[in-house]
Amino acid sequence: MTDFAATKAMFDLPEGMIYLDGNSLGPLPKTAKARVASMIEDEWGQMLITGWNKAGWMQQPLSIGDRIGRLIGAEPGHVVMGDTLSIKVYQAVASALELNPTRRVVLSDNGNFPSDLYIVQGLLKSLGADFELRVVDPEDVAANITEDLAVLMLTEVDYRTGRMHDMKALTELAHAKGVMTVWDLAHSAGAVPVDLAGCQADFAVGCSYKYLNSGPGGPAFIYVAPRHVDAARPALSGWLGHEAPFAFDLDYRPGTGIERMRVGTPPMIQLAALDASMEIWDQVEMADVRAKSITLCDRFIAGIEASCPELTLASPRDGTTRGSQVSFAFEEGYAAMQAVIARGVIGDFRAPDIMRFGFTPLYIDDADVDGAVAIIADVMNNRLWDRPEYKIRAAVT
Amino acid sequence: MTDFAATKAMFDLPEGMIYLDGNSLGPLPKTAKARVASMIEDEWGQMLITGWNKAGWMQQPLSIGDRIGRLIGAEPGHVVMGDTLSIKVYQAVASALELNPTRRVVLSDNGNFPSDLYIVQGLLKSLGADFELRVVDPEDVAANITEDLAVLMLTEVDYRTGRMHDMKALTELAHAKGVMTVWDLAHSAGAVPVDLAGCQADFAVGCSYKYLNSGPGGPAFIYVAPRHVDAARPALSGWLGHEAPFAFDLDYRPGTGIERMRVGTPPMIQLAALDASMEIWDQVEMADVRAKSITLCDRFIAGIEASCPELTLASPRDGTTRGSQVSFAFEEGYAAMQAVIARGVIGDFRAPDIMRFGFTPLYIDDADVDGAVAIIADVMNNRLWDRPEYKIRAAVT
Questions:
Q1: Which of A330, A304, A308 is nearest to A317 (CA)?
Q2: In this complex, is the C-beta atom of B255 within 8 Å of any C-beta atom belonging to chain A?
Q3: Cα angle: A203, vertex A141, B244; to 5 degrees
Q4: A163, CA 20 to 30 Å: which among A381, B110, B373, B393?
Q5: pTM of the model
Q6: What mean pLDDT comes out for the span B283-292?
Q7: Is residue A95 domain-shared with residue A236, that is, in the same domain?
Q8: Residue B328's domain spans which residues?
Q9: Looking at this predicted complex, what is its ipTM?
């Protein structure tokens, strides 16, 4: 059983703050400071170029990939770290399209991250005018999985409301129609149990700076199913994805397995911070995280609904179909959220009217939920955002 | 006049080591430790998500881009940091090709980084069978600039020998034939003065972890000429390149100017290390670096040629056509370099027979050159690599 009091003690959390925005940027693991300092001083500073071998830098994107792989149900050796999530989406969709070469349509939904849609728009424009991105409402995805689709690209947990797609059912439906799947796990990895292998997902991508707490701009990850990886052509064919990066051949030959999805030199300082965070995750079972997350979210919903009649639940009420976050709709939500933040409860706002709160069992407990509810009720019931001292600037993301 | 004794004192250099591999990975600026620690503790730890505004994270890829821009002759506001060099090469060549839409050929040379060639091979395969990468010998580039070329992609300084292309002459020749240029400055930025604006270069890219000393995996940069930037379509169209990233529109609209070449969330811990390194660069004039670099390289060549008859100069003898490195060819170069490294002089080996040494005036001085020459002469003249204690493993890059 995961000891969440112990994990909470492993984070540096600012005094007097209840941080419900770990779905945007996770907080600082206490050991990250020392781990990064040692990487800088003892590895970069002393080993210099030999650090690539001596300190194991070169292999770290794979070993950390496997540790994240455990949290998302990936087969060992099939997850690698690097780049940003946008780049990993590009790689996954580009490869998936080529594995389905007679088709030209990518299906997604308008609850996906806009950035994922942007990346596909850019990719398809490069590929030619006969490619199409089709975007439907989240609830219409299943009905729109048709035999003309090449790729179904979805984010499992809606970043605004926390609504979850049924990864297993939609993947099965896609496969029945000959469609490849690309799953974005940005709000899933470290938030909800994921079973990539069990769902037969084809490609998956995600980021490490939200629930995985790797710090701002930490590297992303990519998963390619074992049955595809040796056939997947890397569109971004960089030297570290080459079969023999140090042979300096003039022609690209993809490396074996997931290594081919590496591109350029990995960000070793960011990886050191992620490594420290993974030391916490290594002690955690996702089933425990999920159970506690649902408890925290349910408690928050009950507390808010009992005290803030003006807020309307915008997340699924059923915890099993909701990610690790709760959103409420409120017309003056932007201003209200600024006042909530000014009072030390950090959530965020998403247009047009969503007040969003993330619940992360590793460092948020029942007392935090109750404290947040009390502050939000005070803000709402006294319309604190109308007072000049609460009109502060929003956090950006 | 740059004070190189002062800059040398700003680096942590391992005791007893002469580090001539700053062209692969630059050493640790002393202030980087504190700068990164403060970024982690005071910014990530205390500001959390509000760091994007409060700590200025969001703008840092642009402000640091401008500081690097000063070193490479870029117009202010036209360089941005992010991703890896491979990704930036992809962006630059993809955009350059679209700006020359009736042509299908990219010309490069076999002295370019293999990674740059790999990236273009991958890009062209995505674009279609009618696209071609043409690779010629470096000395034949000028003669092969023909009117069927869309893009000329070259690395200014050859990573093996230090031979320099004439950026101004080749860019003029390219423009006369209607060809776009993409210059890779990986071995130029911080090594030799570059005048992108004066040369009328179209696109340029480079990395920060070599001569710019940002640490392993530090972010890359991209430059787009002012006359092209608002017409350049970003192939990797991520959310931070969007006109309004936080509006969460479903359709991509490129941002103004160089911002459109941003892709995903920037690696803020790596950027903190780069920021510390740039505090040194801010005090440095590239003309001084160039003068001192030529002096150091000439001194090294003279010393080696006087003491090591078996080594054959593989770099240009004329310092004005050579980057900030010197290479010697030697049949048993791989084994010999391992022995040199074991004796504390860190250079590296490049197949088939190149022993490579980088000279970086910020922290290498005449005494280092003389010390390195003495050790290399001892290794060569006593064939130390034949002794078992010197058969150590090579540094990887």
A1: A304
A2: no
A3: 75
A4: A381
A5: 0.97
A6: 98
A7: yes
A8: 4-29+285-390
A9: 0.96
